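Researcher: Please translate sequence to structure tokens.
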Amino acid sequence: MRADLLIVGAGMVGSALALALRHSGLEILLLDGSPLSVKPFDAQGPFEPRVSALSAASQRILERLGAWEGIAGRRVSPYTDMHVWDGSGTGQIQFSAASVHAQVLGHIVENRVVQDSLLERLHDSDVGLLSNARLEQMRRSGDEWLLTLADGRTLRAPLVVAADGANSAVRKLTGCETREWDYLHHAIVTSVRCSEAHQATAWQRFTDEGPLAFLPLSRDDGQAWCSIVWSTTPEQAEKLMALDDAAFCEALGRAFEGHLGEVVSADPRLCVPLRQRHAKRYVDEGLALIGDAAHTIHPLAGQGVNLGFLDAAVLAEELERACERGERLADVKVLSRFERRRMPHNLALMAAMEGFERLFQADPLPLRWLRNSGLKLVEQMPEAKALFVRQALGLSGDLPALAKA
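Model: Translation complete:
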């Protein structure tokens, strides 16, 4: 089986790339180890533990790909404000969509909701879908890549895009080098019901062990539910995972300083080791890495999938321009245009998140004073806060056409 473009990984980012190129005239094959089926959705059912904080830029991309309608028709939780404070001091800062004349700061959406909405559009398109396809081998064969699947099938294409996540098989099989380090933290994720409404606000407290986020979830029964991301040491995470639900809710409520009242109940918990990873190059001859295959960051600000969607939109834009010019898409010179546009932005955000995380993890008294003073100072600077909000919304920088207003 041969295609002009093989996209390995039909998660949110890989699916977005395939949809962005659906009218390009290219023969596209999107493959994934999952069944690629759209499951029935119960809007009153339990929340999925993994969620994303979609920026305005990501929303525009999903709207133009035809997937936002499916997301809004399932379950989506807009938030208008963000409240961040230092649990070891008195510093705090609040951000508001109204400060930049926006209606919302973003939307908290379950990953499954985004994924299924994209798959619906893919099933209605001419993009080739190859489900239950697990990649086992990959090598160069002349000017093309030869991929061998676990069931023995072989695929050929001059251009392969790795969108197969943080543990990318494509990245490993092609020998792409990465810079990696362990945060020495684990993140506990689940959904909880609180006794007080979340007020359409994303809440984040920095504790001595790590950041704790309560992200607002909405259902017909109101604003009682939140998705939590609790970053802590592996030892503390192990203890928290061993607690029964009542004890976990009590510990969570204490760590959150009762900001939303009592934590009444919690759904099943997941515990995820946190590791930062960045590919030294996003491209090679006939190869490009996007999304988590190229970079993974701390879940501090929920920006991971937003970076991935921008990767997909920029790569699609550069490939379509190359098609119009009659250029060879697999040429590393063509693919490097994508890398030049995305790598600086991704590295800058990763560095900011890393610095932010390290500052709030710092124990020395001068650094504690610095972060508290910094929060108080920025809180009194509306222009600086507005700049941060515009950045979070995706309203600045080198935006692809799919993300522009």
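Researcher: Any highlights?
Model: The radius of gyration is 21 Å.
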